[in-house]
Amino acid sequence: MPRPASFDREEALDAVMRTFWEHGFEATSLDRIERATGLKRQSLYNAFGDKEAMFAAALDRYRIQVGTPLRALLDHDDPATAVRAYLEGHLRMLQDPCTPAGCLIAGCSSELGPREDSVGARMRAETAGAVEAGVEVFRAWAAAGKLSIGADPEQLAALLATIIRGLAVLARANPDPDILIQAVDGAVAALSPFLGAASPPAHAQ
Amino acid sequence: MPRPASFDREEALDAVMRTFWEHGFEATSLDRIERATGLKRQSLYNAFGDKEAMFAAALDRYRIQVGTPLRALLDHDDPATAVRAYLEGHLRMLQDPCTPAGCLIAGCSSELGPREDSVGARMRAETAGAVEAGVEVFRAWAAAGKLSIGADPEQLAALLATIIRGLAVLARANPDPDILIQAVDGAVAALSPFLGAASPPAHAQ
DNA sequence: TCCTTTCTTGACTGATCGGTAAATTTCAGC
DNA sequence: GCTGAAATTTACCGATCAGTCAAGAAAGGA
Question: Of chain A residues 149-168, which have a CB less than 8 A from chain B?
Fold first, then answer.
């Protein structure tokens, strides 16, 4: 068993993920990854494989480090509380100065949208899976009688997934954080009446 | 006045716009533009300038051909009708098989988000301008007393802009059109109570 | 017809792309 | 210390990138 690697794989993967997060797939060159990780080309290829494999590993890490904690915010007895926490959690993440602006999934799925190779397919699957996970949460709420009468769980889940991705786009393009806060406040006000809250929308603040 | 150009500038610009629309800024190479327009490199540089100028011209054309007609859907006396038409119009556009999937502005502003050169700045300005235009529409509705009591025009405009961009992301990534339809239906149901509609949200279909 | 001006064409630049081969360094086991 | 396998480094590959140059083709004005 000769010569262990001199770098921490997780730490390097973190830098890889952040580079893809910041610049997208195409604009992330191997040179940029070298600079971000401090590693040389061959070490990267030894550790992760080619660029697509690096991207896949970065997506996996993103799901663990970002996606899963955010989705956990939906695990709350009260749907209105859960949705508010979910939206505000996304807002914090999207604007966190310690991480690149926006969302890796939303950004790269926009970038790679119609591509037919493995990366494009991977991104489409990532998006579809995330949306479907949200649908299941709303269906469970509906089955538990936690949604207001007439609330459609599929509609609400699709709308929430849409809002989340819209926030990601705006967070990446718009330096004005007020717009995002207003969008989240508006979303909470618009969605709450469907989530078991008693107050009619005309009085929603 | 010797030798007129042998091609139609508007027609060529249309192909340029569609190429950027489909592949984004970085992944649109000059070779690809040559193939899409049928023109040679030097003709493109003569007609439009460098790649950034081609992109700027494509954005201008996109605003005229896509953005302006969509924004005109908000010009309606009844806010609820206007918002529904606006959302459904975007849905049609995003999924129109005659044009690339998604939205040029949303896609490229995600792609170029934090870039500090002129293209990045241009995209950020495009997004900020579009959002601000929506805010003015809602403010006018509010001033005309067309919004429900308690409805916040800034919140509603920010939310609508967010939803529009979220739809663009999903339209580009998700081949399932049902999700988008459900999102639009959900958005109409969630927003209508604020737009002067009388029906309470519990009965919104 | 000829000239001038522009458009068009194809070859070309240096830079950068993702990926690789070979040489060199470094450490575990003996 | 020696040896060998793996990690690291350096140099390089062909392809492609945006952009340019110069020669050839074509049309209006004379």
Answer: 149-152, 154-159, 161-168
